[in-house]
Design brief:
The chain is α/β, with parallel strands linked by helices. It is built from 14 helices and 8 strands. Helix 2 packs parallel to helix 14 and helix 7 packs across helix 8.
Length: 295
Amino acid sequence: MTLNEWRTGGEYFEHRDLKIFYRRSGDGAEPVLCLHGFPAASFDYRKIWRPLSERFDLLAFDMIGYGFSSKPPNWAYKTFDQVDVLQELIEHLSISRVHILAHDYGNTITQELLAREIEGRSNFEIASICFLNGALFPETHRPIFAQRLLISPLGSIFGRLIPDVVFKKNLAKVFGPDTKPSDDELDDYLTLFKNNDGKRIAHRLIRYMTEREKYRERWVLPLQQMTQPFRFINGLADAVSGEHLVRRFREIIPEQTDIVELNGIGHFPHLESPDAVLKAYVEFRGRIDRAIKVV
C-alpha cells in the first residue's frame, strides 16, 4: 500500500481546531487500536493492515505532531494531551472496547491509558494488549544520536536543519542488520516527518523521553497490575529497545511470560517481519477468543 493510498483511505477528526488523521477498517465497537511511535505515523501498520482487516475491525490514527495530523508550533505535545485526543476520538466514533496493538511511543500512550483506567478516568475498556518494541522503562531506553540531539538545548535548531540524509541514516540504524528499509520506504518516512512543516516541532515531540523518567512510577505500576491478556512481540536486534528491554521486562514484570522474541529483527518488527508479527498477533487473539468461549 502506498503512502498516497493510505492517506486517501483515511478521514479527519477535529480536536480544538486541529485536524487528526485516522483510518478505520470496519465499524465494529471493538476494533484493534493500532498505536504508532516516533518519528513515524499510523502508516507503519500498512504491511499488516489488510490481512488484519480480514479478521478484525481496525482503527489507527496519527497523533498530533505526526504524519498527516496537525502540527501546531506551540502545542505542548505532552503524553497526557495525546491521550486526551485519543479518548475524544474513541468517543467520537462511539467505540466502547478496544484491543491495543502498540509500538514505541504507542506503548507509553497505553501505559497512560492503563493509569487512567486505575483512576476510573477511562471512557472505554481495554480488552487486550500487545506491545511491539518500545521503551517501557526509562533505564533501558537507548536513544539514537538524532534523539539525543533533539532532546538537547540544540534540539530546535537540529530539528529544523537536520539534513534528509542524516534523518534517513539514523532511522535505518534501528532496523535489523538484514531487514533495513528500502530507499522508497525511507522517503515515505521523510515525507511524513516533514509534512505540515513537521521539522519545526520535532524537538517538542521528543519530550516524551523526559516524561518517561518523571512519570516512571505512574506508568510502570499499571503494567505490574494489568489484568488484560497481554503479549509482547520484540525484535531482539533493536539497539533502542531490543533484547536488553526483554531482560528488564522479565525482572520487573515476571508474571507476564507471553513474550515472542524475533531474532535478527530490529525496532520495527511489523515492517521488518510482518508475517511473523501477523502470525503472533492472530495466535494471541485466537487464544483469547477460545478462553471466552470456554467461559
